[in-house]
Fold each of these.
Amino acid sequence: MTVLVFGRNGQLANALIRHPWSPNADGSPRKVVALGSAEADIRDAVAVTNAITTHQPTLVVNAAAYTAVDKAESEPEAAYAVNETGSGAIAHAAAAAGIPLIHVSTDYVFDGTGTSPYREDQPTAPLGVYGASKLAGEKAVAAAGGRTVSLRTSWVFSADGNNFVKTMLRLGADRPALRVVADQVGRPTAAADIAAAIAFLEPFVADGRASGVLHFAGAEAISWHGFAEAIFDEAAALGRPRPSVAPITTADYPTPAKRPAYSVLACDRFLALPGASLPDWRVALRQVVTDLVG
Ligand SMILES: NC(=O)c1ccc[n+]([C@@H]2O[C@H](COP(=O)([O-])OP(=O)(O)OC[C@H]3O[C@@H](n4cnc5c(N)ncnc54)[C@H](OP(=O)(O)O)[C@@H]3O)[C@@H](O)[C@H]2O)c1
């Protein structure tokens, strides 16, 4: 009963490795095998197929992605090679082997001009190469025709890898005052909570009660500025200096890739599954900040 994770060193892959998976029916612990690009480069369809043949998983999770949002603007081929071609290779291999796949996607498939949470069936319109390549990945996964869910999530944070929480804590350690964008709103989501959602989803994907695109994110929407305030509140409670955080606009902080302004995912489809709930990201944030500076 192996869970095979493509991606090894990223935020989500680490959370999947650490997740307390329910034991197998015979009481033995669930085995999680996570493969980084050195072991199985997802751009290589043969390597992907070999990994599935070798490990004979009962669930495949694609946690591998090209996630450098700004860099993708100048190297679109690299982004598409991983996010479209690689995701498609995993989906084809999983479908051929009859194994359910949970693929992970992003809120950046939307342009963020909306004013109410985005449902799965709303039109996509990515603003940049990263979002476009992830959308192409969703389509490649759907085209493979297996038992799949493309789980769109947003604003991922954990004590691993690169993310906004770690950036804020690093900058806040040296500076008494920061400026953070206040006109982009989204739902922060802890990698640990995505891992739990994937474990929760497994039986629903396996028997077809969940399929296609599904949104999952932290319960509360907030701006980057508000998120920064929450991060520094937690750090200050642990005795760290608390910088002031001034709200600025997106125009004050230009980046190579445009970001959606209103990037709030509606998670009603996920919530309709029996037993589903959305996590309070503030609970996970306290743990992550404690892990990083406590
Ligand atoms: N981060 C966010 O805020 C965010 C928001 C919404 C959705 N998502 C989605 O959530 C998922 C997980 O994101 P994350 O934050 O955990 O990403 P991450 O920390 O950037 O990790 C991505 C991992 O993908 C692996 N990878 C890249 N190219 C690969 C290749 N060709 N073959 C095999 N592995 C490869 C890398 O492994 P190596 O180090 O071994 O190369 C890297 O560790 C992704 O699908 C992402 O698009 C993320």
Amino acid sequence: MIVTLKTILGLADAKKIAIGAFNVAELEGIQSVLGAAEELGQPVIIQFVPIHEEYIKMETLGPIMVMMADKAAVPVCVHLDHCSDFDTIKRALDMGFSSVMYDGSMLSFEENAANTKAAVEIASGYGASVEAEIGAMDSEDGAAADNCYTEPDEAEKFVKLTGIDALACSFGTVHGLYKAEPKLDFPRIKEIRDKIGIPIVMHGGSGVSDEDFKKCIANGVRKINYYTYRAKKGGEYVKKKCMETEGPVFFHDITCWAREVMTEDVGHAMEVFSGISGK
Ligand SMILES: [Zn+2]
């Protein structure tokens, strides 16, 4: 069934776990994530990021995400990831997405807060949730820059001004693949969480160790965005299977191989985020 981000993160808060937020850019991605979630009986977030429209249009994948989430046996939030365009936010909400992220992290604090507040007003008309971000998590060299960490006092002010449901913070993670081992600022997570009183979102989950994930969750992270490793695992497994196969490879074989290994990868991530494994 479809639930909002606020509802699903409330479930996470009650259990002191994090919910995996898995970006999907293809049907096999949705099948892998929902398959793993149902197998483990865990709530889950599937999300679409507008930059992936170069692979598939939101108008194509979005309604499938909503339909499959609706039929799932576990609570599923359908979320729009990193969006700074109000038209796209409205398109997603019209499609039935239950949550959106307004990303104004590149703007000044004041502009970001004003736009985020406007996004909250739009989303509330649909009964949907809003995630927003302060502090930047993008870097050119695969490591977080010293000056982009989220300031706890700013975070508190931002949440009060905007009325958002979850805040993406910068505490040492970056998007994509890490070039050096990430150095995460755990006390900062706790300080921010204590000040803002709403769930913290961690972006850049690919390449963080299971141990570090657990420390982030213990300090107040409740949503973990995860994409790159799932996509990489799927691609590498297909490559290996293609090379091992004698004779023709059919396209339906590729989709089945990818689904198999991606379900496994997502399942492992969910076990770590929900504290099922490695206690
Ligand atoms: Zn992100």
